[in-house]
Amino acid sequence: MDNVVDRLIRYAKIYTESDYHAPADAAPSTRCQFDLAHLLVEELRGLGVDNARCDETCYVYATIPATPGCEHLPAIGLIAHMDTTPDMTGKDVKPQVLHYDGGDLVLNREQNIVMEAAKFPELQKFVGQDLVCTDGTTLLGADDKAGVAIILQAVEELLAEGTPHGKLCLGFTPDEEIGRGTDHFDVAGFGADFAYTLDGGDITDYEYETFNAAKSVVTINGFSIHPGTSKDKMKNAILIAQEFNGLLPPLETPAHTEGYQGFFHLQEMHGVAEKAVMEYIVRDHSMERFLQRKAALDQAAEQIDRRYGPGTAVVDTQDQYYNMYEVLKDHMEIVALAEAAMKAAGIAHPTHSPIRGGTDGCMLTYKGLLCPNLPSGGHNAHGRFEFAPVESLKTGVRTVKALVSPALVETVILKKEEN
User: Fold this and answer.
1) How far apart are CA 318 and CA 215, in angstroms?
2) Given this model, what pLDDT does residue 200 score?
3) Which residues have CB under 8 Å from 126's CB, separation 6+?
4) Taking the domains of the chain in order of start, what are their residue ranges?
5) Of 43, 144, 157, 176, catalytic
6) Using an 8 Å Cβ cutoff, are 91 and 23 in contact?
7) How far apart are the C-alpha atoms of 156 and 148, rounded to whole Å?
8) What 3-state DSSP class applies to 157?
């Protein structure tokens, strides 16, 4: 039998970076994601899940029938994404397992890459444990290959042990990191009554609230002329773009916010004197504040136009997703099952935090598949200091196995329905 650490290491070595700039009709955004997709199909079939398949858009699906006597249980979905973020390279990942004794953790002695305890105080929770890390030159990809590994490992153990369970529906998605993870997800064909993404962080923390989210492209139209004869004529779009950004609240950025605090995030900026483009993401858990933030961008454009003329600043804002709590609040027994499973896995006091981002589960919830988020145990996602504690990965496997246990499902879900 495999183990969850070996799985994560194996999956982390496979290059699956998605691409923000891929054409809108590219599905998936990068062909390399098929490499992991095909491996997962092969592994599932090796476990006896003969219906495992990968479709033409790189979604992996599999169904495990209910064991005899458990056909009355609801079908539970388990979902994780295969891609890694383009924010830092995920090519040639070199995972390593390091024992952490406290203090700074040296990832790469040759290049002097050190995870400093002062900058990452959460390390203190894992003194005396083994951590799956990188060599500091790439991200690890535990977001979300830890989730993939936990699901596959739990499935292997359930099947090998002959543990009773209801129908299980497995789904592995591409392009989550660029916001396209559910674009081609077959909700009806998936067949689950409800589901869970395994795409969270600390293994003690589950999630059922997300941001309301939008992307805004701000185009600044300037006027270029030779700088030697430009007095009272030039409108430098790059400088005007800086003015536009200065009209937004300076402390309402990701670097200055936490918890339920929303933000404006200038994600990309490029241009010349004639024209500049800024790409923002706008986030807030409150719908009221979310609408105010979008209005603030339009108001900034109005001010720029008053200074430099109509059409100088053009704002194009598109909503991306909404807070899944607004749907899940009427179905909290699904959340209660997640918490009960975590307790059964040995987590004495599970906590829940708002997701400062989105998940495939958010989009799926609004498509009719209720889908809160379970932790997968990774930390410091999207960077060179990403790590996953071995014990957290093992706890994740125990959580999934508890989640589908007939006794827990009957107690938390079916009795709630009867009442």
Assistant:
1) 5
2) 86
3) 100, 389, 391
4) 4-209+324-418, 212-320
5) 176
6) no
7) 12
8) helix
**Coil, strand or helix: which one is 318?**
strand
* pLDDT (0 to 100) of residue 4: 98
Out of 17, 83, 156, 339, the active site residue is: 83
Whether 232 has a pLDDT exceeding 70, the answer reads: yes
Asked whether the beta carbons of 369 and 194 are under 8 A apart, the reply is yes
279 is catalytic: no
In the chain, the amino acid numbered 419 is N
The length of the chain is 419
Domain 4-209+324-418 has CATH 3.40.630.10: yes
192: which 2 tokens? Answer: 């689950």
CA–CA separation, 128 and 105 (whole Å): 12
- Which positions ≥6 away from 241 have C-beta within 8 Å? 218, 220, 269, 271, 276, 278
* Cβ atoms < 10 Å from Cβ of 287: 12
Tokens of 78: 């388990």
The tokens for 156 are: 């292997």
Question: What residues does 388 pair with on adjacent strands?
Answer: 132
Does this model's pTM top 0.85? My answer is: yes
Percent of the chain with pLDDT over 90: 95
Instruction: Encode pLDDT of 277-319 as tens digits.
Output: 999 999 999 999 999 999 999 999 999 999 999 999 999 999 9
What architecture is domain 212-320? 2-Layer Sandwich (3.30)
397 has a pLDDT exceeding 80:
yes
Angle at 80 between CA 207 and CA 159, to 5 degrees: 110
Known active-site residue 83: yes
pLDDT value of residue 374: 97
Q: Determine the Cα–Cα distance for residues 341 and 404; give it in Å rounded to an integer.
A: 8
**Do the Cβ atoms of 90 and 17 come closer than 8 Å?**
yes
Q: Quick one: pLDDT at residue 419?
A: 53
The answer to whether residues 369 and 192 touch, using CB atoms and an 8 Å cutoff, is: yes
The answer to whether 347 and 125 are in contact (CB under 8 A) is no
